[in-house]
Design a protein that fits this description.
37% helix; four-stranded mixed beta sheet; Rossmann fold; 2 domains; single chain; 18% strand
């Protein structure tokens, strides 16, 4: 239900598809074709964009049940989405590998990870991979603060520094790094956050900085056990919800239990990192910087 038929995750017009004279709403064709093939129900697996489209189709009369799947983990109505922990595992392994190269060549290594407007992947992988700095969209950073952290690492005798950069991270007073904007939907494609920071760090610290962008490596490969089990549980639950005729629902993991919730409610809010939450506080207590230390009262 992603890009082929409906083509976009535009919040204002979830059914917009590129056309010769602009966006075209093809929801009527979807409903007509579902009727032609005798479709009893549709189980939709995806993130906020896909599930928002599913919610609108449900409102128009299609029998839908949603299953949350996104590496971004940005759906507020579920504890975790499957795919998330596999992406963290991939990013953590990359940090472990980068550390060996960084230490042998005395370099500053920047790892850019996905997540769009949510910093969950960067935060978890950064803690698991013992990064020196984690930059996330929810905490605007000051390049000078990041530079000071790198210098302090050198003064303590560390041969290298590791910085995890979420693709949506932005400097204080600045904007996210964008490589392209879809002319039809207006959807922004993020990229270049780490490269931008690398140029600034080289000027501030005179250190040798290298950038690795994981990109779509985070989205594939063999799932970790947690994601396999969660996907199996959610799939089983979605089947039961559909067989019971309780459409317009999304299955979820809530406090360790598999439940279901209204699909429209499930996609209403994004789940973002709390800058003052326990995970960020734990990272700070461990000495991990977030690039906002300059000017913080508790710095």
């Amino acid at each position: 239900m992603g890009g082929t038929v409906l083509g976009t995750t535009n919040r204002d017009n979830p059914f917009a598809c590129p056309g010769e004279h602009g966006p075209v709403n093809r929801s009527g064709e979807v409903l007509e074709n579902a009727c032609k093939i005798g479709l009893d129900a549709l189980i939709v697996i995806g993130g906020d964009g896909t599930l928002r489209i599913a919610s609108e189709l449900g409102r128009l009369g299609l029998n839908v049940v949603g299953v949350p799947k996104t590496i971004d983990n940005d759906l507020a109505s579920t504890d975790y989405t499957f795919g998330f922990w596999t992406a963290i595992d991939t990013a953590t392994e990359a940090l472990d590998r980068l550390r060996e190269t960084a230490e042998s060549h005395h370099r500053v290594m920047l790892l850019e990870v996905m997540g769009r407007h949510a910093g969950w992947i960067a935060l978890h992988a950064g803690i698991a991979g013992a990064a020196d700095v984690i930059l996330i969209p929810e905490i605007p950073y000051d390049p000078r603060s990041v530079g000071e952290t790198v210098v302090r690492c050198q003064e303590r005798g560390k041969a290298s520094s590791l910085v995890v950069v979420a693709e949506g991270a932005a400097p204080r007073g600045g904007e996210m790094a964008i490589v392209a904007v879809d002319p039809i939907t207006g959807v922004k494609r993020l990229g270049g956050a780490a490269e931008r920071l690398a140029r600034e760090l080289e000027a501030l610290t005179r250190c040798e900085v290298r950038v690795t962008v994981l990109g779509h490596l985070q989205r594939g490969g063999s799932p970790v056990a947690f994601d396999r089990i969660l996907a199996t549980q959610l799939g089983e639950a979605a089947t039961h919800v559909a067989m019971q005729g309780r459409f317009g629902r999304m299955v979820r993991l809530a406090s360790g239990r598999i439940e279901d919730v209204d699909l429209g409610e499930a996609v209403r809010d994004a789940k973002l990192v709390d800058p003052k939450g326990p995970l960020v506080n734990s990272a700070r207590a461990l000495g991990i910087a977030f690039g906002d230390e300059l000017g913080r009262e508790d710095a």
